[in-house]
Write a structure and sequence with these properties.
Layout (H helix, E strand, L loop, with lengths): L5 H10 L2 H8 L23 E6 L7 E4 L5 E4 L3 E4 L5 H11 L11 E7 L5 E5 L5 E3 L7 H7 L12 E7 L2 E7 L2 H4 L5 H7 L8 E4 L1
Parallel strand pairs: 6-10
Antiparallel strand pairs: 1-2, 1-5, 3-4, 6-7, 8-9, 8-10
Length: about 210
Amino acid sequence: MRRIGVAGAAVLVLLMPLDVAVAIVGPPAPPPAPVTAPLKPYRINPGDEIEVYVWGDERLQRTLKVLPDGSFSFPLVGRIEALDKLPTDLEGVIVKGLADQYRNSVPRVTVSVRNPTGLTYSVAGRVKSPGSFTPGHYVNVLEAISVAGGPTEFADLAKTKIYRKKGGELVVIDVKLDSAMKGSPSQADLKTGLIELQSGDVVVVP
């Protein structure tokens, strides 16, 4: 059998009809699917507006606002602690609280966040547009400073701090953002720059 080199094979392919050549060469490989991080489930914050619907009993349909202490009241159930809970957690609490009101099984309960206005943070110090923000979704420190207009000329991003309430204490988190803002962050700096803010956090850029 006569052998042909690589160059000869290339010429042979070029001389073939297009459909035959495509069949030999094969279709191009599909691009890799983009890798996306899973979305973080939303947890209830004070000030959130939630909607509770008890299927088959419209009298118990309610739109409620979570109080500053993280609770709300629901008919026949009473006070419910909602702070940092998932909507599905609240569904279980309400079903359990209504159990004595029905002879058979409790109707299905649906809890949804109608308006996540309780998720707020503040940016202060040397940024162009300081203030309080209600993003409606989770943000990290870099995103928060960007939303606040970015740092001013003399901002010391290497000494950025996050003030966070934990129970009755105030926790201070040091964040180094100077290299991240310049586009050449180290892995350690990038890790601190991507710290996700919690509701009530205050970011200070000195």
